[in-house]
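pasting for the record
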Amino acid sequence: MITQMQKAVGGWKLLPELNLPSSSSSGPALPFARQDAMSAPPRPPVSDREFQSHLDSAGRVRDFWALKQAVFLGGLDPSLRKVAWRLLLPVFPKGSTGQERIAFMKRSAQRYFEMKRCWKETYAAGQMSQAHLALITAISKDVIRTDRGHPFYSGGNGNVATGGSMADAAESEYSPHILQLFDLLVTYAIYHPSVGYAQGMSDLASPLLVVQKDEAYAYICFCALMCRTKDNFRRESTAMLTKFQHLHDLIVHMDAELAAFLRCHGLADMFFTHRWLLLEMKREFQFDDTLRMLEVQWAGLPHLFTFPKSADGVPLQEDACIGVASPASASTSAAAAVSPPSPKDTPYLRLQSMLRQSREEASALASSGASATAAVVLKDGVVELPPPEVLGCGNPFLLFMCASMLQEHRDR
């Protein structure tokens, strides 16, 4: 993992040579866009003492770019992750003090348990919609398989593979942390009806729960993470197609020989990297290495993702669900706003169908002599890449990680 991250950082330092345009927004596009950061070698993880030096007497972060640069180059001491991840994701409003952040987490946790109580009472009363029952069943099946070998999720002998629901399970039947993961995912799906639930979300939520060690705090962090990644799970899959295109363009720009090899073997559309891009490399390393990789990746995000879009901090539910108070309305209001995607309609299957259709249409049009536009346009050369806040849908370092993985396997 360290080798691949070093290669990715090395590629990242080539940004000026890669003809990557500057951000169109004010301020530095990247936390490590300064000349001294470009030449800096990997360093030890940020310690508690160093982390505190980035805060003023009231607990405000003095310079987010300096903090993100330090994390990007060295990661965090594990003891800091619970607090620092909330800043990196990001959870809090800009300029918040330490006391304001504590108060925000307490208010948000209280709201989370109110939301959770509402849907659980709705479920117990038999008033849950069929769409949400399907979501609950899908989540029940996925969480039991998520990071199951990690000690954090050990215990219990429940089995929902035959179609049962974890919502009906006794607390002693499963590890309490598996039940917490289930509850936070169901709460998110019900109160974010335009997103719902899709395979892969449990993989993104699991490290947050392991690090936060608190169900409500993990939910808050998950909402922050999904603000940036939710488009990966939408039915139309345009965000994933954009990432495939950008990864193709990056490899063509960086490594023409590798690009030619992939094209020769019918892999240039990059569809085989779907899991890497969807889960942001979460499954590709040992769990402890994954935690470091994630925080380095978040620290490398452009300034667009430094603070929540809302001045009040990360929202815990979609606007359509605000004001839901009673158990019955918690389900019916969300369902009426937007019908959640079917859990069987997974991002992988949607993309597979889209790419298959694109290839068939392109082949048919080519046979007839007409021009065709494929889902991923294969190029012989790339002169300029998109700006950092656009490249990889705002996560350019992830593309460099993917490219370094491919180069490592090619070298073998």
